[in-house]
């Protein structure tokens, strides 16, 4: 695809709902920056600038980072570790940027806690009146602004909502929307994309609490619904690879990776597989980490940081199994190899 200024964009995208941008955009080579789309798993501070209760800008969030940044974790996220493994800088939150700043060239994080593929996603977690998060469509719109208005100045020459759906119908709805959104990114110049499946949400402390798990076992019904989306994502990847010229889509099977962490925690050095390090109620799943709440002391021994999010230790494992040179959890090639194309 050629843009109006004659420069071809050579972009590698990581979606958890996430992105790498090769710079300068008229050349192809090793990825030099990461552009990220997603939700609270990889939001690194955008929601700090939004009127919403979905924030993580207070201790003990960030306790192992050194200070709270807006990351919904005790330390680094999967994309932070991915950037380190690829030798890339940590992208800054889009909403923290000043106009025309050269920081954009180092990558941008558009992710927003409570965002989703559908615009309705997350409304029950945030301030209704203000919108309270940047939906995936909203993130794409901000990326379009970056590509069409900001980068040219710096580089001369994505809960069941009001309608009821069957599980299959809802998965179809999500995939159809996701396909349209991915094609929108393609039309903006994105070519290299790493699509992250949904993890086993039936195993997170929030779901264990809500479904009153008596022994800490994952909620099968929730995981079955998640699997319906993942089953559709792989064929979508194949379809887009074959129909969008110049594109290269990679799939990260985070479901099996994270499920193995939960089912075999001691293999990875974890002592707690279903208890949140910082939270209230059974499994720490009733309320997420509160301001100044004292978290567990052995944070690297816990898979879950709060009611919804993994610890830094779990994020590091997930990242290494896709972004390291010997990674095996991404298909048909690793995120490391994709960044080198």
In brief:
With 341 residues, this protein is of the alpha/beta class. The chain is built from eight helices and ten strands.
What is the secondary structure topology, with strand pairs?
Elements: E1 11-16, E2 19-21, E3 33-38, H1 78-86, E4 92-93, E5 107-109, H2 136-154, H3 167-187, E6 190-196, H4 205-210, H5 220-243, E7 248-252, H6 254-263, E8 272-276, E9 302-304, H7 312-323, E10 330-331, H8 335-340
Parallel strand pairs: 1-3, 1-6, 3-5, 4-5, 6-7, 8-9
Antiparallel strand pairs: 1-2, 2-3, 7-10
List keywords for this structure.
eight-stranded mixed sheet, 8 helices, 10 strands, alpha/beta, 341 residues, two-stranded parallel sheet, disordered N terminus, single chain, globular
Notes on the protein architecture:
Residues 1-12, 17-28, 126-130 and 157-162 have low confidence and may be disordered. 31% of the residues lie in helices and 12% in strands. Strand 1 (11-16) and strand 2 form a beta hairpin. It is of the alpha/beta class. It contains eight helices and ten strands.
Low-confidence stretches: 1-12, 17-28, 126-130, 157-162
* Number of beta strands: 10
Amount of helix: 25-40%
Q: Report the biggest beta sheet as strand number plus sense, adding barrel if it closes.
A: 8 strands, mixed
Distance between the termini: 17 Å
Radius of gyration: 19 Å
Question: What is the 3D form?
Answer: globular
Q: What structural class do the secondary elements suggest?
A: alpha/beta
**Number of helical segments with 4 or more residues:** 8
What does the average pLDDT come to? 85
SS strand fraction: 5-15%
Helix-strand topology string: EEEHEEHHEHHEHEEHEH
